[in-house]
Amino acid sequence: MSIDVIIFLGLAAVAIASAVSMLISRNAIYSAIFLVMNFITVAVLYLLLNAAFIALVQVTVYAGAIMVLFLFVIMLLGAEHVETSRKLPWQLPVALIFGLILVGEFGLMLYTRMDVLAESVQSVVEGFGSPASVGSELFRTYLIPFEITSVLLLVAMVGAIVLSRNERKESR
Amino acid sequence: MNIPTTYLLALSGVMFTLGVLGVLIRRNTIVIFMSIELMLNSANLAFISFARQFSELPGQVFVFFVIAVAAAEVAVGLALIVTIFKTRHSIDIDQINKLRG
After folding, report:
1. B27 → chain A, closest CA residue
2. A10 lies in a domain?
3. CATH code at B36?
4. Domain that holds residue A39
5. What pLDDT shows up at residue B21?
6. What range defines the domain where residue B16 resides?
7. CB A16 to CB B14 under 8 A?
8. Which residue of B has its CA nearest to A71?
């Protein structure tokens, strides 16, 4: 077993453990912190996979901006605990059975398609996935999608403001 | 780094399933939302693995777009959750069963 696979197994163990902890912790703030841990672990994995730019975007946008927004809303609403009004007692076992079926299908698909992926990874060229190469790809080939993304972010911002605005006009 | 792509896809599949289980099991709307982020994250991992396997840069560019769309989605979704909380004073997913405010 090579050193790469050992590093991968360690990272995968941390990622899965933090995801499971996110699922089972009662306090929503702990869930958010565990999710940050998961995101940072995956970012380290991206660094190992020749995706330095995406790793940095993952840390700043996902683990930074998005999760701070989550924590802010949780604390604003005081929604750390939601009292469980469980109306469906069979929900948990059925969900677990469906999850097991899904994992089984993933495993079966990987097992049957293994020969396609078994061929060794092509040697990556120098600078593959660096900020410079991803940026030039983004601004040459994918310029129009990039601009559409900026419009999408603007629309989301306006939408969030409109949704959370106080309805003062009606009372006036 | 020479990690087999099959291992990465297996990790991605397990993380996706954990996200699905979170959506199915948890009652807290915000935790359900975080589980959706977990699923997006696992899909990104699969994209990055295939980009490395075939030395194709567009796979990484697509992950960039997925992250941007996820940021927009989180902004709107959390604004919706705050609005629902203002009218119903709860974010238990069982309480949110009407389209009317």
Report:
1. A84
2. yes
3. 1.10.287.3510
4. 1-81
5. 94
6. 5-88
7. yes
8. B30
Q: Is residue A18 part of a domain?
A: yes
Chain A contacts of B95, Cβ < 8 Å?
85
Cα of B98 to nearest chain A Cα, Å: 17
Whether B47 maps to a domain, the answer reads yes
Residue A16 and residue A77 in one domain: yes
Is residue A172 very low, low, confident or very high in pLDDT (cuts 50, 70, 90)? very low
Torsion sign over Cα B58, A36, A62, A78: positive
How many domains does one find in chain A?
A: 2
pLDDT digits (tens, 9 = 90+) for A33-76: 999 999 999 999 999 988 999 999 999 999 989 999 999 999 98
Residue B96 lies in a domain: no
Provide the shortest C-alpha distance from residue B40 to chain A (in Å).
11
Q: Tell whether the torsion through CA atoms of A60, A61, A65 and A68 is positive or negative.
A: negative
- Chain centre to alpha carbon of residue A138: 21
DSSP code for B72: H
Could you tell me the pTM of the whole model? 0.89
Q: Tell me whether residues A156 and B75 touch, CB distance under 8 A.
A: yes
Residue type, A141: T
Tell if the CB–CB gap between A118 and B6 is shorter than 8 Å. Answer: yes
Using the Cβ of B80 and the Cβ atoms of chain A, whether some distance falls under 8 Å is answered with yes
In a domain, A45, yes or no: yes
The count of structural domains within chain B is 1
ipTM: 0.91
Kindly tell me the number of DSSP H helices and DSSP E strands found in chain B: 3, 0
> CA B101 to CA B83: how far, in whole Å?
9
The chain-wide mean pLDDT, for chain A, equals 87
User: Does any domain span residue A69?
Assistant: yes
If you average pLDDT over every residue of chain B, what do you get? 89
pLDDT digits (tens, 9 = 90+) for B10-40: 999 999 999 999 999 888 889 999 999 999 9
Helix/strand/coil for B92: strand
What's the average model confidence in pLDDT over A74-103?
83
